[in-house]
Design a protein that fits this description.
The protein is mainly α. The chain contains 12 helices and 3 strands, in the order E-E-H-H-E-H-H-H-H-H-H-H-H-H-H.
């Protein structure tokens, strides 16, 4: 399935002459995400990218229609029958290489051409800047999660990964960054992630003056299980004000709900 989408400002009222009309074989949200990433890199001077840089989050994205490739391509041509309409430079209905499948020989040539090539630090920095602050929608996250469920690497693939990583050592700076990240967000690395769901309860009990042994008795959990959680709270951490923790808590809770719903239906 494909879609036709319209990127415009709130002042635009006529999709036939204003804003940007696009065609995509993915969702409009995914394609808009790509447009914003490309705009942040400042490598193009397309009107739609200039508009994204100018108007930012005030732009509006509308999915006009979802249908077959042929139907959407035909509609895009009707909406943009000429060049330079609105923020579009080209005539609608031109899809380039969409639907074409490269031959095995062509794919090998493309692969060989890229072997050994590394992106410059400047290019990597630009890509990082373009992605910084951008968040995937919940729908996109669910789709990504669903596409990976049930998939397992073959023994050959796992062996290749092991061979590729054997003998590699991280720099001191990289190790230090990982250590800082683990200290700042231990819930992401904990083997007892369910324990961190009690963080707000533990914090409230600590504020009331309860010691670790009293907290463990109240929650009916061993002191050893909540050791890291309690001592993080004791060091001054407030889970209610930690935005990173609250974001993780929301995502993890949703995953548990989805898992329970799936188990109930099977």
């Amino acid at each position: 399935m494909a879609c036709i989408y319209w990127i415009h400002t709130k002042e635009h009222t006529d999709m036939f002459s204003e804003g940007y009309i696009g065609f995509s074989i993915r969702t409009a949200e995914d394609r808009f995400f790509n447009h914003k990433s490309e705009a942040k890199l400042h490598r193009t001077n397309y009107p739609v990218h200039n508009a994204i840089r100018k108007y930012g989050d005030s732009l509006i994205l509308d999915t006009i229609v979802v249908g077959s490739d042929d139907y959407c391509i035909d509609l895009e041509y009707k909406l943009r029958p000429e060049r330079n309409i609105g923020w579009n430079l080209d005539v609608g209905g031109r899809v380039g290489n969409i639907g074409r499948v490269a031959s095995e020989e062509t794919r090998k040539k493309q692969s060989l051409a890229k072997l050994g090539k590394k992106q410059s630090p400047e290019h990597c920095a630009k890509k990082a800047d373009a992605r910084r602050g951008l968040k995937l929608s919940e729908e996109t996250k669910r789709k990504m999660s669903a596409s990976k469920k049930g998939k397992a690497f073959s023994p050959e693939h796992r062996a290749k990964i092991t061979a590729a990583n054997t003998g590699k050592t991280h720099s001191k700076e990289h190790v230090a960054k990982l250590s800082e990240y683990k200290i700042a967000q231990p819930w992401c690395y904990s083997k007892r992630k369910e324990t961190w769901l009690l963080a707000e309860d533990v914090f409230n009990m600590f504020v009331e003056g309860k010691r670790a042994c009293e907290v463990s008795k109240t929650l009916d959990i061993s002191k050893h299980t909540i050791y890291n959680l309690y001592h993080k709270v004791k060091s001054g951490w407030n889970p209610l004000k930690d935005s990173l923790f609250q974001e993780w808590l929301s995502e993890y809770t949703n995953k548990l709900k989805e898992s329970n719903e799936t188990s109930c239906t099977t």
